[in-house]
Amino acid sequence: MEKGKKKALVLDIDGTLTDSEKRITPATKEALQNIMGLGHKVILASGRPTPGMRRYEKELELEKFGGYLLSFNGGRIVECRSGEIVYQRTLPLPILPELYAFARENHCGLITYLGDQVISAFEPDEYVALEARINGLPIRVVKNFVEFVDFEINKCLLTAPPETAPALEGRLREKFRGIASIYRSEAFFIEIMPENVDKASSLEHMLESLGIPREDAVCCGDGFNDISMIRYAGVGVAMGNAKPEVKEAADYVTASNDEDGLVEVIHKFILMED
Length: 274
What we know:
CATH architecture of the largest domain: 3-Layer(aba) Sandwich
Helix content: 25-40%
CATH class of the largest domain: Alpha Beta
CATH superfamily of the largest domain: HAD superfamily/HAD-like
Largest sheet: 8 strands, mixed
Structural class: alpha/beta
Distance between the termini: 13 Å
CATH topology of the largest domain: Rossmann fold
Number of domains: 2
Mean pLDDT: 96
Strand content: 15-25%
Radius of gyration: 18 Å
Number of helices: 12
């Protein structure tokens, strides 16, 4: 990376941009707005649905600075200045009956999203309730999930206890091989994504449109679903609070999300002030 070149800083939200209380610290906010004022791009890349990212978009003033939201783990990219969807991939709806049957048989939660609502196939378990609370969205339980979902969706989310989720993830990967991408974003969240869609694949599309080479992208995260973009980036950064697998994939491990780890990253890799 060269000092003075315009760079893209790509940030996961939960556990990366925000501290343990889901807040952006004043020091992190100031550092991010400073580099955006210098012309660097800030892209928020999250498994969250787009509405669940809006509060952070507003807080960082991404509309003013020309930032981007990469939501649904890369299923959708929104330009903050115009509000337009500039890239989107959707799940094939014919997989829903089998996905629904799998969730019911294995006592999993199953949700997708419609506008500002979480659409749930069953009465919400604690993990579905958590997802809705994190995103500030109401839950709507529908009687016939498969019939109800007749609109384009960027992802589904299966929920299961951390002790059973890994085995269920493996079975789902086998079941939907060549049809959907399956991976966990948290110990209890199993993401069902369009095939070959992850944060890295969508980020590649976006950087091309911005004319920023991947060598000038710095990607920061803490969860399983951040590994693809951390490996893809010119500099892949794991937060100090990241899972061990994420730290293994990273070029650099910064301080935790409760210790303003992003400020350290900004000074070292964006401003290049050693």
